[in-house]
Design a protein that fits this description.
With 209 residues, the protein is α/β, with parallel strands linked by helices. It has helices spanning 10-20, 26-44, 82-91, 138-149, 164-173, 201-206; strands at residues 4-6, 50-56, 61-67, 72-78, 96-97, 99-104, 111-117, 126-130, 133-134, 154-158, 161-162, 178-181, 183-184, 187-188, 194-195. The protein is built from six helices and 15 strands. It binds 1-O-pyrophosphono-5-O-phosphono-alpha-D-ribofuranose and uracil.
Length: 209
């Protein structure tokens, strides 16, 4: 069974409360989602392996540590996952970015895939899938299934707000994928929205409602 990491750093929790507030407009919402994503990426990458590297300082030689092993890929789920990309890239500028387009059918709540473009060497990368909202878990599970069909073997999922229903579904569908979230909320409402959540993340990021 995969693990669920609740990122309870005070800075992350402070920013989360502001983006939950319906009075927060798209500009602040976007900025805060980006800042939270950068801070959360710090935790998500905590277990990255290191290797030694010798360097010459102006004073003498020393052996330091650098990231070893597989390179990173980040894959936002469109649209809302786009809001998290800039923050992660600030921390890991060498990461390659793929995109998977999935929207949730408003009646069935089932995921509908409409776009995919991944780095050519995606199967050799450790991939972090980004989406601010894990509600029923359908969109995340579909995106991860697609990545696995493309032979990606190392996948983490990073979101901002998760519902217990989505966590349970994702863990059942993909028990090998660890989940990182800033909040585990109460439940889903009758329309599949997270309670209390933050509303529709895509609309709030892009001002479409
Ligand atoms: C939202 C969100 C997730 C999905 C979560 O996307 O960004 O992708 O819903 O719901 P689920 O866990 O029940 O699948 P939405 O379908 O609203 O598309 P958008 O990002 O284009 O607005
Ligand atoms: N998608 C969102 O953007 N918000 C929710 O609460 C659920 C799904």
């Amino acid at each position: 069974m995969s693990s669920v990491h609740l990122i309870d750093h005070p800075l992350v929790q402070h920013k989360l409360t502001i983006i939950r507030d319906q009075a927060t407009g798209p500009k602040d919402f976007r900025d805060l989602v980006e800042e939270m994503s950068m801070l959360m990426a710090y935790e998500v990458t905590r277990d990255m392996p290191l290797e030694d590297l010798e360097v010459e300082t102006p004073i003498g030689r020393t052996t330091g540590k650098v990231i070893a092993g597989r390179q990173l890929g980040i894959v936002p789920i469109l649209r809302a996952g786009l809001g998290m990309v800039g923050g992660v890239l600030k921390l890991i500028p060498a990461a390659k970015v793929g995109h998977i387009g999935v929207y949730r059918d408003p009646d069935t709540l089932k995921p509908v895939e409409y776009y995919c473009k991944l780095p050519v060497d995606v199967e050799e990368r450790q991939v972090i899938v980004l989406d601010p909202m894990l509600a029923t878990g359908g969109s995340a599970a579909a995106a991860i299934k697609y990545l696995k069909e493309r032979n990606v073997t190392s996948i983490k999922f990073m979101c901002i707000v998760a519902a217990p229903e989505g966590i349970e579904f994702l863990q059942r569908e993909h028990p090998d994928v660890n989940i990182y979230t800033a909040a585990i909320d109460q439940r889903l409402n009758d329309h599949g929205y997270i309670v209390p959540g933050l509303g529709d993340a895509g609309d709030r990021l892009f001002g479409t409602k």
